[in-house]
Amino acid sequence: MTHGMTHGMTYINVWITECLTDTVKLLVFLTLPLHRDMMMSLDDKGSVQIQTKVLPQDSWTQVSCPCCVSKQVESLVLIQLSDNVQPVTKRWLISLIEASKRHGGAALLAHPGEDECGDVIVVSAPRCTFLKATEDLGLCKKYHNEDMVAFSYHDRDNFSNVDDMQEFLTLAERQYIVKNELDSLQAQKKQRIPGVPEAPGVLEAWENICQKLVRAGVIKDIFPLHDQQRLNDLGRRWYSKKQIWGQPLDAIQSYFGSTVAFYFSFLDFYTWALVPPAFLGLVLTFLLPGGGGVVKEQAVEGVMEDDDDGPSVSGHMVQAVFSMLWSTLFIELWKRRSSSLSHRWGTLNLAERFAGPRPGFQGTLGLNPETGRLEPLFPEWQRQLRVGLVSLPLVGLFMGLVVLGMTGFYRGEALVQGFHQDSGSLFSGALLYLPSMAHIVYTNMLGNVYHAVAMQLTEWENHREESSFQNHHTTKVLLFTFFNNFAVLFHIAFYKQDLPLLRKRLASMLIGNQLMNQCTEVVVPFMVDRFLSAPHKKEQEDDLEMDKLRAQRSLPPFPGLFAEYIELLLQFGYLSLFSCVYPLTAVLLLLNNITEIRGDAYKFCKLFRKPFSAPVSNMGVWQTAFEVLGFVSVMSNCWLLLLSPRVQEFCLEGGISGKNIILFAILVEHVLILVKMILAFMIPDEPDWVRIKREQIEFNSMQALGQQKL
């Protein structure tokens, strides 16, 4: 073991295996108090030798394949058991983990790794398991000619670094493979779990074992282990004071996985892309005559007019057209960037691989008609009925609750303003903020309830593939989030047609949300890590008996990237949909994202457990969501231009009827959508060299398959 298990343990149990017969093994656990970085081994004479920074090799389960025998085993994943787990249950689980797949096991390596409570199992994997899983996942690796080629187990000797798993696979890939193999454990027949009461301890045939153990209270959690030295090195390169621009994306992908790396790559690309609209916003606001002023509503003829310092018609038009073209160029250029990163990280060929059933999938046991494998089956028509008759109505119900809250906000605002006009006191002035505060609390509470309901609905829909599950769950949350955050703005813009209120509301939402995000994502985590966690860190450094594994277990699990992508999507919506009303939108977003990158990096490295990260080839459904917003921005900006006071004044002076104005706006909208489509068509989603590499990978895969058949 080279990196993973440098975490100390108060007591390390040495598991000595002696073969008494061909089928019987005697397991003897010897407990010795050791230093946190020490290992114990036996020399040729049977004397005890103490070394540092490794676990005792004899305590790992043995492998039967000669090519998988290694002097050092890297600790990758920790299984946290319940405090009252029975030793017989733990031994039974270890035997399942080490058993071969033909005997219903995971073909992994297990270490009892016991502290004083004996409630952990440390897991790794042998070389053959890693290589076979690499082929199953469809990962591309460097061939002997330095090209990226889809890995083939039968052709493994022609790949670079195939004998060194720490060079051949990234840390995130190795840990995900271990987790994937654990999730694939299924009971071969109906049996009882040793040491567990009969009611929750019965495994049905082909039932997922890890999920059953979680429900039975045997397993509390499964998480990957940090490599503290590599994490510290990454942190110094990532969020240190010296590192201002750029991110070590390859190091992030190697340590945290492509899922996390794609998020930070997109955040970095998006932040740099904000520079042109931010510059334009500053020019329109401060350099053009009357830039960035306030629109006022005149009582005469009921027409809204600009002050002398209001934006000119040309300024509105420039900002609106630029936003529409910028959003298109941004998305298309990101696609190219994403495809090049996917090739570099060996995940370009993942989308064409057949995905197995996810751990939570349930159904009647049968033969899969596509693969011929025995697995749970669930009719597609039943899933569609659940989506159409239950999920969609419930999503509509929550959107109706959003409208109800918006209606209550306007009613409350009208009542408070009337009361303030009558009394004019300081108390009534303070009450003017009450409707907004109540509406914010209401939407936040409703959002939290909806997120829980959306997860339960998606689980109940029983999707077979993990990608399908994530896409349906993300789509549900995206619909509600978009409606919950933009319904008020669209209502103000297109129903009330109150541009001054729209500008004020947009500015307050941008500034308020960013201040809140900076406080919760940067200031609070920094204070917690610096002042609340510092005494515990000092105690770990001073106390030689402090268990570093326990320190990792005490960290909260990472909440995922859902909230981070939602935040970026809302930013993109504010900028692309309404920036012509408030040109400084991009400036505020740019300032926010410069600190957002470092704050998110600090959270990943310091405040949460290391997450599992599945290999991905792009951002998935999030990329589609940004593209949809780009098309919606065309309609939004066209109609906002139509509502511009000086555009209306120009139409009135020219004697243009309202019907002709609407027809002209529809014509402009369709022309701009056509321009967006032409731009998207002219800019390929992947560079030519990536396309050539992808076709080469497909061709080599077909050749390798043909050779295997021969």
TrEMBL record:
Anoctamin transmembrane domain ranges (all copies): 252-696
Membrane topology: Multi-pass membrane protein
InterPro entries: Anoctamin, Anoctamin_TM
Listed transmembrane segments: 269-288, 387-410, 430-453, 474-495, 568-591, 612-642, 662-683
Keyword Membrane: yes
Superkingdom field: Eukaryota
Record key words, sorted: Membrane, Transmembrane, Transmembrane helix
Pfam families per the UniProt record, alphabetical: Anoctamin (PF04547)
Residues spanning the signal sequence: none
Subcellular location: Membrane
GO cellular component terms listed in the entry, alphabetical order: plasma membrane
GO MF annotations, alphabetized: chloride channel activity
PANTHER family: ANOCTAMIN
Record family assignment: Belongs to the anoctamin family.
Name under which the protein is recorded: Anoctamin
Gene name as annotated: LOC115196910
